Amino acid sequence: MGLRDEILEQPEVARRHLASSSAAIDALVARLRANPIYHLFIAARGTSDHAAIYGQYLFGVVNALSVGLAAPSVVSVYGVEPRVGRSLVVGISQSGASPDIVAVVAAARRQGAPTLAITNAPDSPLGAAAEYVIDLAAGPERAVAATKTYTTSLLALARLSGALAGEPTEALQGIPDAIAAALEVEPEVERITGELASMDRGVIVGRGFEYATAREWALKLKELAQVFADPYSAADFLHGPIALVQPGIPVLVLAPAGAAAPGQLQLLRDLRERRVDTLVASDVADARALGRWSIALPAGLPERLRPIVSIVPAQLFAYHLTRARGLDPDQPRYLSKVTRTV
Amino acid sequence: MGLRDEILEQPEVARRHLASSSAAIDALVARLRANPIYHLFIAARGTSDHAAIYGQYLFGVVNALSVGLAAPSVVSVYGVEPRVGRSLVVGISQSGASPDIVAVVAAARRQGAPTLAITNAPDSPLGAAAEYVIDLAAGPERAVAATKTYTTSLLALARLSGALAGEPTEALQGIPDAIAAALEVEPEVERITGELASMDRGVIVGRGFEYATAREWALKLKELAQVFADPYSAADFLHGPIALVQPGIPVLVLAPAGAAAPGQLQLLRDLRERRVDTLVASDVADARALGRWSIALPAGLPERLRPIVSIVPAQLFAYHLTRARGLDPDQPRYLSKVTRTV
To answer: What was the pLDDT predicted at A342?
Structure first.
């Protein structure tokens, strides 16, 4: 099983995750209904931190909670346990082995706050530290670059958010097929990466829900393809980093339908005027037409769930760009599967 | 007045800010003493977002608050006003003109939460939206790249944190002289940037309090010198982006004394083994000796206040690297002083 196998396995893994026990979600939702919270803090590193960013938009927009990403060093380096009040504190880690994430969750639990671990290793230290545990049930992830544990982490967050909002689960049940549809772009993605093989720098722009996708796409490009890929929300991009763009440095833009679309389309038109090469990932043909290259995303998904699907072509892009650059996606430089940061 | 003048003006500006009225801070602290809070959310973009990151560590470590950075798009793009409960909600913006930051603060105020604006324009929309306003009193900032409004934003946060903790203000009073001492490295910084003129990519690593400095240093390098400068906390760096480093791509490491120092020193030794060129900014000679290049930071500052000073050599570095690369630091490409993101 290599990285590509794990990317292609995601429809099946998503199906398995959705069929897995919802007991932890049900119990946590019952507790939060009895004792409402306003705040949610999420501690995570690396790829899991991008799942946390998705959670920030999801629980903000769907559940109207104030969501913050924890700075784990406050606990692990400075030894201070911030007061969490009645926040829900969530740790996300596929291995469940990172001491700093465990420390944040353990500190919150000592204060009596509800705590949740989202992990592929429920028997891990993180699983032991949290009161509630959602098992990703993604099966062993052998590739160093996380893919299926990312999409299942997003799914787990979406299940919890939907259950807390009392939403029906039909839309979630459509995700495995949507991931399968997203995988069909592989031949086109491979063709594009062939043209971009000399790319050693790039900017990736998302907004709102797709900001998490931009961050995760960039990380995959860094760790696998050794590309300096700089991810931004469109708003922050205009606050300085736009100075980086110039002909020859591609800008990858996530511009699917939704509330963030108008701003993304304006950005695409501005970049076109500046003769910058863009790659557009979108479910809207008019948006794709604004890019030099484009990748089609499956249409018809609710905006709040789409990041679970839109990362999939980006994973394929990173995989094939890595090979186009003569590197081995299954042997990324300097990295190991479990990173135990303190 | 150009960018360099504003960098050099910072000791005087810091002195002026510290002498400015503390009425807003006193009133806010009195309110927070009467009605204690556990949570603080900060909304900001660009350079101000890096002040917010400093605030996350500062109020976490010194005041044991749970601090989150707001995702302004939740309000401005998706039209949802998250419940803030009894959080303190802070907006930071030198111009006070960014509609998305104003929207976050206004939404919190409508809910009755205490709100604070930190701005160089107290008469701005942000100043009008917040119940409490700290005037940076930095004087007009004309250069597109923010420098003196960054250091005064940090100072404003440090004043508030210290007042809330009931700390004496002596250490704060030493900051203007420390900034003046930090400016003395300019000839050495100019010499180093001459050697690095061909740098078009780089990684910047901070940890804990100095993570904000790494982020702001990177932004200055992007917007002024057009360098793909990727900032990381050391923990996140090990989760993937370390794959980017190789001989010829310098890594700039903030490694001053303090709780985060042991990890940074280990990272420097690892990078040396991999023959990566590092530049070390530190107040400790042993740490500096681990780098191919080094910049001395003034010694003896409390760790929680040092980011106000350690950014200053980084600003000089960005200014001189920009010139060494044949670019004009006073005319950054595509940027304007006020960015009104929605």
So the answer is: 65
ipTM: 0.95
Q: How confident is the model at residue B93 (pLDDT cuts 50, 70, 90)?
A: very high
Neighbours of A83 (CB within 10 A): 18
What positions of B carry a catalytic annotation? 337
Distances (CA, A) of A117 to A65, A72, A80: 19, 15, 21
Counted residue by residue, chain A has a size of 342
E-assigned strands of A52-166?
66-69, 88-92, 115-119, 132-135
Phi/psi of residue A265, each to 5°? -65, -40
Phi, psi values for residue B115, rounded to 5°: -130, 145
Name which of B92, B239, B274 to mutate to probe chain A: the one with the most chain A Cβ atoms within 10 A of its Cβ. B239
> Using CA atoms, how far apart are residues B287 and B266, in angstroms rounded to an integer?
10
Instruction: Kindly state whether A222 is in contact with chain B, defined as any CB-CB distance less than 8 angstroms.
Output: yes
CA–CA dist A177, A189 (Å, integer): 19
pTM score, whole prediction = 0.96
Does A77 lie at the interface with B, CB-CB under 8 angstroms? yes
